[in-house]
Write a structure and sequence with these properties.
This protein has one domain. Helices cover about 20% and strands about 40% of the residues. The chain is α+β, with helices and mostly antiparallel strands. The chain is globular and about 40 Å long. Strands 1, 2, 3, 4, 5, 6, 7, 8, 9 and 10 form a ten-stranded antiparallel β-sheet that branches.
Length: about 160
């Protein structure tokens, strides 16, 4: 397996920094591609959510920074605590039961799905959570963009 770093891929592609960002799926890890209009253009971002239990089992604490690494061949992904760079996981609410969410710009080569999906946790170790991405994940194209184009085509056909 050869894991690629989403943070390094983002750093090499982005022109400016971004911020993070809710979820309603019961899986321990949630993966999605969100879209937002900015300056008249659609921008896409990766959103990864973790339950408090998964977050604490990996011994993550408030203020930690993370990289997301993925292996296209095995469809495995890792959330790894890093000393510098990376993203912070912010709580979705004030309660102790609030999920922790990371959100960062999506770039070609990163995993993509057409909807919010739950992911199976494979292992939790100190500083690392490894999880399985769904079978229909793509590392070559933005599936959310394709899904939006199909919706638009249906609206025009009606």
């Amino acid at each position: 397996m050869a894991f690629l770093s989403a943070y390094e891929l983002s750093a090499s592609q982005r022109k400016s920094g971004g911020r993070s960002g809710g979820i309603k799926i019961s899986s321990p890890i949630v993966f999605a591609i969100d879209r937002q209009r900015s300056n008249g253009k659609w921008r896409y971002s990766v959103r990864i959510g973790m339950t408090p239990k998964v977050y604490s089992d990996a011994r993550f604490i408030e203020g930690d920074r993370f990289d997301v690494q993925f292996d296209p061949d095995s469809r495995m992904a890792k959330i790894v605590r890093v000393n510098s760079g990376g993203w912070m996981a912010t709580p979705t609410g004030r309660e102790k039961s609030a999920r922790r969410v990371m959100k960062f710009a999506w770039y070609e080569g990163m995993p993509s799905v057409d909807r919010t999906v739950g992911c199976q946790v494979v292992s939790i170790e100190t500083n690392t959570i490894t999880f399985q991405l769904p079978e229909d994940v793509s590392f070559k194209e933005n599936l959310r963009l394709d899904a939006e184009k199909q919706k638009e085509g249906l609206k025009l056909a009606l």
